[in-house]
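Review the following:
>
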Amino acid sequence: MVRRFLAAHAGRNEVPASALLGKLVGELVAVMAIGLSAPGSVEVECLIVAPDYRKKQIGRVMLRELEALAVRMERDWLTAGRDSQTRVFFERVGFADDGKRMVRKVR
């Protein structure tokens, strides 16, 4: 299911090692791949939302879930790449550019 979703909406075939899945009424509508390589942070490696479900707050809801997970893991930061396609979204949800990546303090 995840592999098909990523192939259809992101042109990717590999399934991330760690991810949050977004479902609505049993249908997979979003995948957020996450990484834990940097101490003290959780990285958003990619966030894919199906085109029909964009602009419906799904990405924001998934980030709230990730933030709750980061708190339970005692991680202080959420980080993301500076990809031009996702940069505007991350800025809208409170991330700032630190020169290398987008970052947001966990509340």
User: Anything to note?
Assistant: The chain has one domain: 2-105. The chain has a mean pLDDT of 93.
